[in-house]
């Protein structure tokens, strides 16, 4: 592996003219030999860094330059960067491991400033939207003394923001620019105060307390930096080559808080840094076998691997009663003792709805003025056969109770629309993560056979009996049922009369992923809205299976255009879908190819990163004034 820097480099103090007085803009005029450092924050951009290096090398030919990558990735981006560092000594890499990524992208830029002694600092992205050929012009303005700060602008002359994806983002960018100009007069010197592409003289930022929120580091420099002259270079903002946009609702809220803090002359609040103490409060965990239990295990292990302290509490830790679909908890009786434990945590992630448990926690925790941040994860609406009316009333009441949380998490757009209210907490989407490390190579498919797989609890609402009815007398189709539950004896008896049908019962993880790799279709024939995601669909797609599922809220978003949907309980519809796949190899191959990357993008690591971001965003908003564990650590640090 190439050179990976873990400590800040020592640098000499910048030169200042003798007539410079404290409080004035620095008057440093770099010589022609002044080195240029290009600071590039990266996060999961493995395929972008080599093209960026090649383009910069060509653009800066003849200059004294260095390239500093500050990497917050959890994929193989750091390996690609190390290869560049091995190839060219002018390239250095500062990799920030989980738990050490203070300040997000803005913090990464500041870490890059500290890691180089260069006097001219250029900041740009790695995703291809900032053209490398603009860098020399920005650097020349600063090196020559023509400007203390040089900004690449999309909003002047021949500049263009065409690379912003969609009309909404373009309009939002313009609105934010106008807001900043209206509220922060010093930013009016730049036509693009929210640019992420600029060059700055080191003396402008040295010794200045910069505490950016999110990724608008230039905004902080414009307001707090020691500069007097500003230049601009027009450029066209290009479409993104790789990676995801950093914009979003959470980032928008950070931006507004940042502007407000700058408007009132206050330093922005410090981002929540370091490992968090997290309590996951859920209905089911291992050894229970269910999608929720699997998801909780994946999430807790991945958060722990990222450096956080994670405890998990489930219904099994309190007196409870379970009879088929009726499940009640005595958690409320344990509240007096349990609430004392809450002072040990920064965040409690409550999963529901679990009548008498998740709703009881939200109501009881709301009565405490000082408590951890509470993030509620809504899995699905309650749906119990025979109690439709009661479930409708409960779901309506539970949505109001969910507003007591500081943020709500859901797994789909449809549930985001259901849970969002005008005056309620923010509702964020985080799809459940697939443990893609377990994916196996697929052996060749036997000719003339369609191998169908069902994975789940053998309960009536899961619809396994619908699947068996659908494959009865269906030529060339075999079906395997994996799982256990009260319906198993009836399903085994039914499968005994169907050629090629078998019920394996519960299996271990290795056998489960072997089954995914040796079947062609994963079927989720659930009958009610108690099924709102279908983790097994994501696992099956990641292993190369085509998803066939009931057309239910949330579930249809997981399937997307990678599979087939049928009406819940429609035996003939399911039969027709399986017959199409059994007789059309081209369709089967096309859907499998579409689902493979889709399933692997639903990784545990991606879900964990989003949970980490939401937890920290909530703590930035409420933690320092309320969460006892966080306040105590801050006070004694």
Automatic annotation (TrEMBL):
Glycosyltransferase subfamily 4-like N-terminal domain: residues covered: 289-438
Compositional bias ranges of the Polar residues kind: 1-11
UniProt entry tagged with the keyword Kinase: no
Molecular function terms, GO-annotated: glycosyltransferase activity
UniProt-listed GO biological process terms: carbohydrate derivative biosynthetic process
UniProt-annotated stretches for the region Disordered: 1-32
Annotated InterPro entries: Glyco_trans_2-like, Glyco_trans_4-like_N, Glycosyltransferase_grp1, Nucleotide-diphossugar_trans
Record-annotated Glycosyltransferase 2-like domain positions: 38-161
Assigned keywords, A-Z: Glycosyltransferase, Transferase
Name of a matching Pfam family: Glyco_transf_4
Name of the protein this chain belongs to: Glycosyltransferase involved in cell wall biosynthesis
Organism: Paractinoplanes ferrugineus
